[in-house]
Amino acid sequence: MALNLDLIGQKTEPIPFTYDADRVILYALGVGAGVEELDFVYEKNLKVLPTFAAIPASLPFLKVTKGARVNVPKALHMEQKIVLFDRIPTSGTIFTTGVIKAIYDKRDKGAFINVLTESKDENGHPLFENHVAVVDRSAGNFGGDRGPKVEAINPPEGARPDFHVQYATWSNQHALYRLSGDKNPLHIDPEFARIGGMDRPILHGLCTLGFAARAILHSVCGNEPTRLKSISARFTGVVYPGDILVIEGWSSGQGRYVFQTKTQDGRIVLGSSLAEVA
Amino acid sequence: MALNLDLIGQKTEPIPFTYDADRVILYALGVGAGVEELDFVYEKNLKVLPTFAAIPASLPFLKVTKGARVNVPKALHMEQKIVLFDRIPTSGTIFTTGVIKAIYDKRDKGAFINVLTESKDENGHPLFENHVAVVDRSAGNFGGDRGPKVEAINPPEGARPDFHVQYATWSNQHALYRLSGDKNPLHIDPEFARIGGMDRPILHGLCTLGFAARAILHSVCGNEPTRLKSISARFTGVVYPGDILVIEGWSSGQGRYVFQTKTQDGRIVLGSSLAEVA
């Protein structure tokens, strides 16, 4: 079925997402935080991980992509950028709009869909944005604009990283992370994973991004979530639950860090990654 | 403050507990189930672990013990017996009454409080009971009945166990388990644990019981929850997150298994334990 291009630019109503401290903690455990980062997993002095921003964005994202007739279960999550304007509350209701910013015709590669979600607190105060890029490989060649060429962001060749963090993912990381909302069976169902060409269920890309953001938070933000202003990454490889993630970052000045996330075997799983830190 | 003995025998109204598949899965992960026991952590063919029965019992238990002026944060959980009448639904509302059955005066050892909770489904069909014994060490010597002497249940001396299962608890097992409801800071707050005389936060006794029940389920119930008719244990030792649990059981005929749970260093953490299997 052809994509519904008319939906481009049409913003949804604000969609509410109500949550409590338990939900914040569940997310933190889902992206590998633990008691050695107590403020992220205990309600006493609770802090919200910046990448929690991806959770309230999920419903508006699904609404606009389904509306545009994107084959969501078969679409591939390519890129995500989270821009943070303020501290994320530890509970309450967040209101998020979604809009398709552009659909590019990458011919045989498929259609690239760019979605923007904008989230505000109960008083209309902006909290964060998500910029999400997915590809629907079955929807190319619709005669549309090819879109701009995007340059990859690479670490400086041969330079030692300014930080290097290693995290082991848990063998049940995917089973835990999905309780934060993304129930795509690719991440739990062995049969479904095999049909998708994987050996077994894979970790959510946004879960890996959560691990990477923790590494940045602990390495260059002194554990203070509000110091992370933005984080972006391209999902370039599959992570299996139990894999070890190696996150390295290089300062490029003015609080900007190019970073890269590899698995234990050296495969880059998050490429073209940039964090902005205050 | 003296205990309110008048509350003995006074049953609460049925207290509702509403839950969904996510809650069931969260509990299963909390007691160490993982994707190798997929039916317990994936909604497709979801099964509910029998010890999930302890969760809806928690509010009624708190209501009657607080009503009796038991110093709940300082009370020690001594024993729990769960009796199962039918399959626990994977979602819905369960209605549970609570009643104090007896309060025994163990003199300087404190007051022993026996609580019974009874849970039914939305149609009034009995699902399970919890028999909970706690001790309030500050409340003895009130001039009451000492209560019956209870014999310890021990494995047959020198006999090889009929099953032997080893489970590693996760370093964040307590942080995950507490999301199922028991927020006692002893299980997450290092300061609180130190005040309580522990090196660090300890695992919930009911979490350890959940691990033990999984061992029984997988060893002698062919993974079918309805085959477990009852499980009871005495909490005899502290478990730290990350400890290894060794669960061994001995058949004593007619589907009865005496079992015992030790940590890696041989300390018995669940003693006087009995499971009845159909």
Major sheet size, sense and barrel closure of chain A: 10 strands, antiparallel
- Most extensive interface, residues per chain? A-B, 25 and 25 residues
The total beta strand count of chain A reads: 10
Broad structural category of chain A: alpha+beta
Alpha plus pi helix count of chain A: 5
* Oligomeric grouping of the chains: homodimer
Question: Which regions of chain A are unreliable across 5 or more consecutive residues at pLDDT < 50?
Answer: none
Describe the model.
The structure is a homodimer of 278-residue chains. Chain A is α+β, with helices and mostly antiparallel strands and 278 residues long. Chain A has five helices and ten strands. Chain A has helices at 21-30, 58-67, 173-177, 190-195, 205-220, and strands at 15-19, 76-84, 92-105, 111-120, 126-136, 163-168, 228-235, 244-251, 256-263, 268-277. In chain A, strands 1-3-4-5-2-7-10-9-8-6 form a ten-stranded antiparallel β-sheet. In chain A, strand 4 and strand 5 (126-136) form a beta hairpin. The longest helix of chain A is centred in the C-terminal third of the chain and has 16 residues, at 205-220. The model of chain A has no long low-confidence stretch (mean pLDDT 96). The interface between A and B is medium-sized, with 25 and 25 residues.
Keywords:
homodimer, 278 residues, alpha+beta, 10-stranded antiparallel sheet
Task: Describe how the helices and strands are arranged.
2 copies of one chain form a homodimer.
Chain A: E1 15-19, H1 21-30, H2 58-67, E2 76-84, E3 92-105, E4 111-120, E5 126-136, E6 163-168, H3 173-177, H4 190-195, H5 205-220, E7 228-235, E8 244-251, E9 256-263, E10 268-277
Antiparallel strand pairs in A: 1-3, 2-5, 2-7, 3-4, 4-5, 6-8, 7-10, 8-9, 9-10
